[in-house]
């Protein structure tokens, strides 16, 4: 069973549908108090960092998530959900994140590439990871984002992707904390496999 | 590396896919779900459903079908046609659309772009820009190319970007249906001066046209209808052709 946190950040429906399609039970809930009943938690996200952090904290998801992780349970952050795990973001002024993973969220700059990155990009694995089991290296996933994560611990980086002249961190995996910058729920077969891997490991 | 996208565009009515065959009018080409499954299997990068229904009721039927698609085809879905208000856009999102495409309504009420973008994010707003060359100038048209507007294409493209459009779907009305290739001149002029992705549309008749749209036209994505509908080429074949010529694609 996967708990999908509803803190008003869109795209819950498609994540939920993806699990339904896979035959994996998932619930969407806006009640942080219910999180403790689940082994797996998913933090989706579309929108801006500041308002999302505010909403997460207002609904008690920030605290609940930290307790969840302290119990050794696992979590998957998607897109903005991934970025929220880090210490801080420079999106429209400086904002503090959940600080589950030390690191910063920075804005892409490029004179050649269009920002935001919109479309399918390939993912290069940095280590053996649970999330990418049964998915060939350099598979394509669907991205939509203007900011990217720079984790302080290089060993937490599960995969990188090349964009705007750099290899940025597109997936994180560290002691049950999982995060992906792309949208697995919009990345066809490869994306569905990522969700399956998270739910079933 | 970020891939160039290939996007089949399906004209739909009453929840069914329709195709115009040799100007003999529209023929039923199966359900939206069947076609969506087919193109997903062929590695289409996204799907665009353009609703040409005349009534609200038949648009509703289409949305019910899109909802089914979103339950089993997990790639970005765009719904266009009749998105004339935030409520219509919301309805499309509630039925599984990831993006809406606005055209005529955006010209008559440009603030609609901002209102949808503020509520659902810029990534969810595609502005369809239909252009036609009139006395050497590219003029934006509405109502399927029937009505000229006061806007010149480049000026309008920049305006919709400022208003919060996430992508521009640029259709050359002069080339649409001709199978003579995209109008790479206007495509390049717009794609190299805006910072949002530009999707080429109108005129693709063979695989080289797709290639030229990416190289000469600097398009970020290519939309095509007839070359895929009539199974002249498969999407996979198109992508293999492009990859052999150095264009990054998802295969």
From TrEMBL, chain A:
Heterodimer of HisH and HisF. The active site is at 79 (nucleophile), 183, 185. Pathway: Amino-acid biosynthesis; L-histidine biosynthesis; L-histidine from 5-phospho-alpha-D-ribose 1-diphosphate: step 5/9. The gene is hisH. This is Imidazole glycerol phosphate synthase subunit HisH. Residues 4-198 form the Glutamine amidotransferase domain. It is found in: Cytoplasm. Its EC number is 4.3.2.10, 3.5.1.2. GO terms for molecular function: glutaminase activity; imidazoleglycerol-phosphate synthase activity; lyase activity. One of its GO terms (biological process) is L-histidine biosynthetic process. CDD domains: GATase1_IGP_Synthase. Its main location: cytoplasm. It catalyses: 5-[(5-phospho-1-deoxy-D-ribulos-1-ylimino)methylamino]-1-(5-phospho-beta-D-ribosyl)imidazole-4-carboxamide + L-glutamine = D-erythro-1-(imidazol-4-yl)glycerol 3-phosphate + 5-amino-1-(5-phospho-beta-D-ribosyl)imidazole-4-carboxamide + L-glutamate + H(+); L-glutamine + H2O = L-glutamate + NH4(+).
From TrEMBL, chain B:
Its EC number is 4.3.2.10. CDD domains: HisF. It is an enzyme of class 4 (lyase). Heterodimer of HisH and HisF. The active site is at 11, 130. Keywords: Amino-acid biosynthesis, Cytoplasm, Histidine biosynthesis, Lyase. One of its GO terms (cellular component) is cytoplasm. It is found in: Cytoplasm. HAMAP family: HisF. It comes from the Bacteria. SUPFAM superfamilies: Ribulose-phoshate binding barrel. This is Imidazole glycerol phosphate synthase subunit HisF. One of its GO terms (molecular function) is imidazoleglycerol-phosphate synthase activity. Belongs to the HisA/HisF family. Pathway: Amino-acid biosynthesis; L-histidine biosynthesis; L-histidine from 5-phospho-alpha-D-ribose 1-diphosphate: step 5/9. One of its GO terms (biological process) is L-histidine biosynthetic process. It catalyses: 5-[(5-phospho-1-deoxy-D-ribulos-1-ylimino)methylamino]-1-(5-phospho-beta-D-ribosyl)imidazole-4-carboxamide + L-glutamine = D-erythro-1-(imidazol-4-yl)glycerol 3-phosphate + 5-amino-1-(5-phospho-beta-D-ribosyl)imidazole-4-carboxamide + L-glutamate + H(+). It holds the Pfam family His_biosynth.
